[in-house]
TrEMBL record:
It comes from Marinicauda salina. This is GTP cyclohydrolase 1. Residues 26-203 form the GTP cyclohydrolase I domain. Belongs to the GTP cyclohydrolase I family. Signal peptide: none annotated. One of its GO terms (molecular function) is zinc ion binding. It holds the Pfam family GTP_cyclohydroI. The keyword Nucleotide-binding applies. GO terms for biological process: one-carbon metabolic process; tetrahydrobiopterin biosynthetic process; tetrahydrofolate biosynthetic process. It catalyses: GTP + H2O = 7,8-dihydroneopterin 3'-triphosphate + formate + H(+).
Length: 208
C-alpha cells in the first residue's frame, strides 16, 4: 500500500459517521423496544420513539456546546482577589459510555485565579457540557479541569466528582449504595498538599 492510499484510509477511518436523521433515530428506538420484548405498534408505545429522541437531545446536549465559549468572558475588576473560588454541589447528570446508563451525582470545582475570574455560572455550565455526553467519570473529571486550565490559565484547578452509576446500582453487580469519587488537581493544587486538603475538606459540605 502506498503512502497516499494509506493516509486516505486513515482519514476515512477517523471520520465521524454522518449523523442519522431523526426518523432513523426513532426507528432505532422501535428496534430496541422489539428487542426488549414489546410491540412498538402498541398504543402506549406509539409516541415513545419521538419522546426518547427528544430526551436524548437533552441528555446529550453537551456535544453541541464548547466549554471554551462559556469561559471566554473574564472579569478583572475583583480588587486583587486571588484566593480559591469554589463551587460545591453542582449537579451531574451524565450517561456512562459502556452501558448508556445514567450517572447521577455532584461535582465540586475550584480554581485559584491569576488576576481574572469567570462568572460562577460558567463553571456550572462547563460541568454540564461535559456531563451531557457519553462518559467515563474519569474522562469527565479530567475534561472539566482541562477546559478551565486552558481557557483561564489559573494558578491551579481542582475537580471532585462523586456519583452513582446506575449500570452498577440497578444491574450487573447490583451494589445500590456504591458511589465513585474521582479527582483531578492541577498547578498549585497538585503541588501543595495543604491546599488540596483545604479543598477536600470543603467538598465534605456536598457529601453531608
Ligand atoms: N472506570 C470506569 N468504569 C466504568 C464507568 N462507568 C461504568 N464503568 C464500568 O465499565 C465496565 C464495563 O465492563 P464490561 O465487562 O466490558 O461490561 P459488563 O459485562 O456489562 O460489566 P458489568 O457492569 O460488570 O456487568 C464495568 O466494570 C462498569 O462498572 C466509569 O465511569 N469509569
Ligand atoms: Zn456503565
Amino acid at each position: 500500500m502506498d503512502a497516499i492510499t494509506d493516509k486516505t484510509m486513515l482519514e476515512t477511518a477517523e471520520e465521524v459517521p454522518a449523523r442519522p436523521s431523526r426518523e432513523e433515530a426513532e426507528e432505532a428506538v422501535r428496534t430496541l423496544i422489539r428487542w426488549a420484548g414489546d410491540d412498538p405498534r402498541r398504543e402506549g408505545l406509539l409516541d415513545t420513539p419521538g419522546r426518547v429522541v427528544k430526551a436524548y437531545q437533552e441528555w446529550f446536549a453537551g456535544y453541541e456546546k464548547d466549554a471554551a465559549d462559556e469561559l471566554g468572558r473574564v472579569f478583572e475588576d475583583v480588587q486583587g482577589y486571588d484566593d480559591m473560588v469554589m463551587l460545591t454541589d453542582i449537579d451531574v447528570e451524565s450517561h456512562c459510555e459502556h452501558h448508556m446508563a445514567p450517572i447521577i451525582g455532584t461535582a465540586c470545582v475550584a480554581y485559584l485565579p491569576d488576576r481574572a475570574v469567570v462568572g460562577i455560572s460558567k463553571i456550572a455550565k462547563v460541568v454540564e457540557i461535559f456531563s451531557k455526553r457519553l462518559q467515563t467519570q474519569e474522562t469527565m473529571t479530567a475534561q472539566i479541569a482541562d477546559a478551565i486550565e486552558e481557557a483561564m490559565k489559573p494558578r491551579g484547578v481542582a475537580v471532585f466528582v462523586d456519583a452513582k452509576h446506575q449500570c452498577m446500582t440497578t444491574r450487573g453487580v447490583h451494589h445500590p449504595n456504591v458511589s465513585t469519587i474521582t479527582t483531578t488537581f492541577t498547578g498549585e493544587f497538585k503541588a501543595n498538599p495543604e491546599l488540596r486538603e483545604r479543598f477536600m475538606r470543603l467538598t465534605e459540605k456536598s457529601r453531608r
